[in-house]
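Amino acids appear as letters; backbone shape is given numerically. Here is one record.
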Amino acid sequence: MTADGIITAIIIGAIIGALGRLVLPGRQSIPIWLTVLVGIGAALLGTVVANAMGVKTTPGIDWIELFIQIVLAAVGVAIVSGVGGRRRVS
């Protein structure tokens, strides 16, 4: 992997993580760097899942792959927020 590939993965991961965080209701109490890591993982896993489903590279924007990545990012942010988030004492 080249430096360009790593930078691209970080940028795409940040965007996917932010979109995944936006679709979740309520407030997520996790740091932005963790959102980026979840987004990178979701982007990579979403690509693998899309390829396994037979949705390979298409002309233009890969909407199905993007949707899968955002859903995976939302699930990842929800899991990380639930496991590592701050807990309130009632």
Notes: The chain has a mean pLDDT of 78. Residues 13 and 37 are 7 Å apart (CA to CA).
